[in-house]
From TrEMBL:
InterPro entries: Asp/Glu/hydantoin_racemase, Asp/Glu_race, Asp_race
Pfam family, one: Asp_Glu_race
Domain of life: Bacteria
Listed GO MF terms: amino-acid racemase activity
Transmembrane parts of this sequence: none
Protein name: Aspartate racemase
Length: 239
């Protein structure tokens, strides 16, 4: 049984469950029994993953270890995290919980390799950007893809988008409210599409998925949350 460490963010975790349900139903599910049993732990009281990596807050790791152990006691045999940034500690978490984890960043790298991506921009938290967490996975699973991150100024746009995806701006009218999170992400995408030679943009923060999808004829777009949902559905075949 799969255990999901969520609450990172809350809306993104809810969106993950929606994606999983939708994918099973589109694959032919028409009864509740056609969907897998899962336990979701909304780890809202664990410290911020990005703030920790930025050196601005306490570590989230011990909280996640304790949650993972509790999920194991409840019958989970595999875990995943609805957060790219938390993958900073995925090896330590797997070791201390004695459970395997689905690695969202590894799976995004595999998807990129399948798509033949040459140069990908990662929109992500400042903490993930600081530690360049995507490099290790891409070196292993998509070595032909160059990974790049926003510069300091543009990263501020990404951070504003992520923060606003968690607050009331998410419900604003995108057409009239410049602070709508999708507008910040669109601004980032437009800038790099028009000024660089990238051929792909990765939504490397699960909060992005809840408010933004890029529609572009110029570059590909990989939504890390959607990739995670695909992997879960493929691993837990119910029909």
């Amino acid at each position: 049984m799969l255990g999901i460490i969520g609450g990172n963010g809350v809306a993104a975790t809810n969106r993950l469950l929606e994606l999983i349900e939708e994918k099973y139903t589109r694959n032919g599910a028409f009864r509740d029994a056609h969907h897998p049993e899962m336990i979701v732990w909304q780890a809202t009281q664990a410290p911020s993953r990005s703030m920790y990596l930025e050196g601005k807050g306490e570590s989230f790791i011990s909280d996640y270890v304790n949650i993972g152990k509790k999920l194991k006691k409840m019958g989970c045999t595999e875990l995943c995290m609805c957060c790219n940034t938390a993958h900073y500690a995925i090896d330590e978490l797997s070791q201390k919980t004695d459970l395997p984890f689905i690695n969202i960043i590894d799976e995004v790298a595999r998807r990129s390799d399948e798509m033949g991506i040459k140069k990908a921009l990662v929109m992500c938290t400042a903490g993930l950007r600081k530690y360049k967490l995507y490099e290790r996975s891409f070196e292993k699973y998509a070595s032909s893809t160059e990974v790049v991150y926003p510069n300091d100024e543009i990263q501020e746009w990404v951070t504003k988008g992520i923060c606003n995806a968690k607050n009331i701006y998410r419900f604003a009218n995108r057409e009239t409210e410049v602070e709508h999170p999708a507008n910040w992400f669109q601004k980032v995408c437009d800038y790099y599409i028009n000024t660089s030679d990238i051929d792909c943009i990765i939504g490397g923060c699960t909060d992005i998925s809840n408010v933004f999808q890029l529609n572009s004829s110029k570059v590909e777009y990989i939504d890390s949350l959607d990739v995670l949902a695909d992997i879960i559905v493929s691993k837990y075949v119910m029909l």
